[in-house]
Amino acid sequence: MSSKAELLRLLQPPAEKWPLPSREEIEQGYGSALPADYLWLAGTYGLGEISRYLSIFPPLAASEIGTRTGVFPTSAESSEFDDGNEGLDPAYLKPGGLLMWGFNHNDDFAFWSPVGDPATWPIVIRRHLPQSGPNWIRYDLGIVEFLVRTFHGQLAGNPFSGDDLWHNTSPTFERG
Asked: What separation, in Å, do the N-terminal and C-terminal C-alpha atoms of the chain show?
């Protein structure tokens, strides 16, 4: 079963589709395309929250970036404590070194490292209070596969500080 089919099986999408900006508007705003699997996710689910835990941002047209909630370019900040920088790639510190696509109530942040072809952008999670392992974790997966593997507990460890999505085979989605 494909990751998209599995996500649809696990996570009921809203009946109404989310209106996406045109490809040209996205490329003008972000300087490139966004990952195709993310655009499918955004069009299927839209702005909202998974299991009242992980907020997913929609893509924005160039004129909307910075004026409303949506994917936005940012950079990482170094922690004043050495252990808070574990896993931090120096490339993330550069302006625009990350694109934020989500966050949760534990102050964990979800990004892409937008280098190269958007189809291969890795997911980068900044965990605020990791239960174990580094604060910064990179996953060479698309967003849909990342979510499905998180729900099934099929990653090397929980990518987030809280357990709300880890091994959660009945997640919910609420539009934001």
From this structure: 29
Q: How many domains does the chain have?
A: 1
Compute the distance between CA of residue 53 and CA of residue 15 in angstroms, rounded to an integer.
Answer: 21
List of E strands, the chain: 48-50, 54-56, 72-74, 98-104, 109-112, 123-126, 136-139, 173-175
Report which of 24, 13, 10, 32 is spatially closest to residue 145, judged by C-alpha positions: 10
pTM above 0.90?
yes
152 with 1: CB under 8 angstroms? no
Which pLDDT tens digits describe the chain residue by residue (176 residues)?
Answer: 899 999 999 999 999 888 999 999 999 999 999 999 999 999 999 999 999 999 999 999 999 998 988 999 999 988 887 777 889 999 999 999 999 999 999 999 999 999 999 999 999 999 998 877 899 999 999 999 999 999 999 999 999 999 999 999 999 999 98
Residue matched to tokens 């990179």: 138
Range of the domain at 117: 3-175
Do 101 and 117 meet the contact criterion of CB atoms below 8 Å apart? no
> Which value, in Å, is the radius of gyration of the alpha carbons in the chain?
15
